[in-house]
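User: Structure with 6-O-phosphono-beta-D-fructofuranose, tokens only please.
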Amino acid sequence: MRIGILNSGGDCPGLNAVIYGVVGAAAKLGWEVIGFRDGFEGLLPPGDYIMLEPEKMAGILKQGGTILGTTNKGHFAAKVGEGNVAEIPQDIIEKAKATLKLLEIRALIVVGGDGSLTTGMQLMRNGLPVVGVPKTIDNDLAATAMTFGFDSAVSTVVDALDRLHTTADSHKRVMVVEVMGRNAGWIALWGGIAGGAHVILIPEIEFNFENVANAIRQREAQGLHSTMIVVAEGAHLPGGDAVTKEKSASSEHRLGGIGDYVAAKVAEMTGKETRSCTLGHLQRGGSPTALDRLLGARFGVKAVKLIEEAKYGHMVSYQAYHVDSVPIEEAVSACRLVEPDSEVVQTARAVGISFGDK
Ligand code: F6P
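Assistant:
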């Protein structure tokens, strides 16, 4: 028995832990695992792959990125523009099927976000047995309470805020920190609270600049001369949209730039010296936290179990401290957003954090 695995979409810490889990669990069953390089692109004939031998897996747990490579572009991109779904051309699907047949692969594990899992579903509908492992640093898939990579990203944000506080304090400045979070503000919310932010701006809570400026002025009045603002890249400008760096017809638009925008605006309104810092891909790189290594390995082991049980079309899912599974179809359709009245938002408000909405 031979199975395949690929990573698709943006990388995130913990991907290698999934591979580690898959290869270990498969070896126990006497199965071989083939890893396809660069996402679904590795499925194109003649196939770009490596044999994942269990004895070679030692040491990958702590490695960031993915040993297989990944891409969020190419022939298999199912999410384009602003969340639109594209059908993968039939000839491309046939080519992928031919490679898997040639390599005698019984089932394919797709580790990816909603776009990649949508591609996985299209392959499944075309007769390929697919099992999904959710991957999103933004932690915004409704079907799983948590995804690996998120904890590492939050840790990076907290580390950055710890450093930025000292320079902001020294100069009595406002510091605006732009973090990842395309549709959901989880990284900004968790990282912001844990890192002692004073203002958090997220896509789910409409803000206006007067409220943000007031939060800074109130701190000034209390003798607190530095203010830390964390803004999710996907936060919407008042009455507008997210700030886009580059529009794309073949993949999702690239977001970015709201940090600079917010910094310029609050400097103008408050007269405070303001700097902005975009954490960008620092949040995606580096060694995964212990939690992400564990979650990744558990997801990998569960994916093998799903194949053993022939639960194709299912995706691994984390619910109430337990790794379970859900149909991929259900999973990709719903985004898990921050609820503006949730307990964690209330916690932030209770400790004096402003969301710029009042
Ligand atoms: O969706 C995950 C994410 O990390 C977003 O937060 C971000 O907008 C995007 O990926 C960046 O992707 P890329 O690697 O293409 O720059």
